[in-house]
């Protein structure tokens, strides 16, 4: 029966809905598409092969914050493809509609692969244990049974996330350096208004998701991830001098939270 549920989950991941209800955070400069551009797009859509994009058949919605800047929080729409049982790659958007902007990418690996990483590399990764158990991470449109099966797979994984467009700051273009992002690891860190807004749009309840996932087994996370908790902040040097200061590495401060 468990194998059957797994197969059904895969089918549902491919066909489930749950999008089109979250607008992009920013409006970018640029002229409207010309008739010529639209014709070229239509032709390319029919003629060109897009195998990698078609593999993005899993939709996850959660929240990130800037490593070293806990107050810099935003919702993140992940469109993912499992390369194999141990590796998943995701494209992250600031919405799920036609105007959504690509914010960055996330790579997700199994605990087995995470344990093989060098100590310095592990510092770039975050755990997903709390995201799953708390109900923060959802798979919009999936029936509860399929989502539960998916969360059982994700709970022990680790992610490395870089945002290249800081749309939460109303930056109209992808300016500045890519930023390393982290995930929340305990109650009281994520802004309640972000969750409330998300839950209303998708018609879900984080508290109900948490209740439904109490039976998901979640062994202690492997040491090395979530390095921000111990005050070790990693970010790239700033490439521009624009005024959105918390994208500048010099403005990141340790926000270690006592457990």
Automatic annotation (TrEMBL):
Residues 248-259 have a biased composition (Polar residues). Residues 1-19 form the signal peptide. It comes from the Bacteria. Keywords: Signal. It holds the Pfam family DUF1264. InterPro entries: OBAP-like. Residues 205-259 are annotated as: Disordered. This is DUF1264 domain-containing protein. It comes from Fibrisoma montanum.
């Amino acid at each position: 029966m468990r194998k059957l549920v797994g197969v059904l989950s895969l089918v549902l991941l491919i066909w489930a809905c749950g999008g089109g209800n979250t607008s992009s955070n920013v409006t970018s400069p640029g002229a409207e598409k010309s008739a010529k551009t639209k014709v070229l797009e239509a032709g390319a859509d029919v003629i060109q092969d897009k195998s990698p994009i078609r593999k993005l058949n899993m939709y996850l919605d959660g929240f990130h914050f800037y490593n070293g800047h806990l107050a810099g929080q935003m919702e993140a729409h992940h469109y993912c493809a499992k390369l194999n049982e141990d590796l998943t790659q995701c494209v992250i958007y600031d919405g799920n509609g036609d105007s959504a902007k690509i914010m960055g990418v996330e790579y997700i690996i199994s605990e087995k692969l995470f344990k093989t990483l060098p100590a310095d590399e592990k510092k770039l990764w975050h755990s997903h244990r709390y995201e799953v158990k708390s109900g923060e991470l959802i798979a919009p449109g999936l029936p509860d049974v399929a989502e539960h099966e998916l969360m059982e797979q994700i709970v022990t994984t680790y992610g490395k996330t870089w945002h290249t467009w800081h749309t939460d700051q109303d930056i109209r273009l992808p300016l500045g350096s890519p930023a390393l992002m982290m995930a929340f690891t305990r109650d009281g860190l994520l802004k309640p208004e972000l969750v409330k807004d998300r839950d209303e749009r998708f018609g879900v309840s984080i508290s109900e998701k948490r209740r439904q996932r109490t039976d998901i087994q979640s062994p202690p996370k492997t040491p090395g991830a979530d390095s921000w908790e111990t005050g070790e902040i990693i970010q790239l040097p700033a490439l521009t001098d624009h005024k959105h200061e918390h994208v500048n590495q010099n403005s990141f401060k340790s926000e270690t939270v006592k457990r």
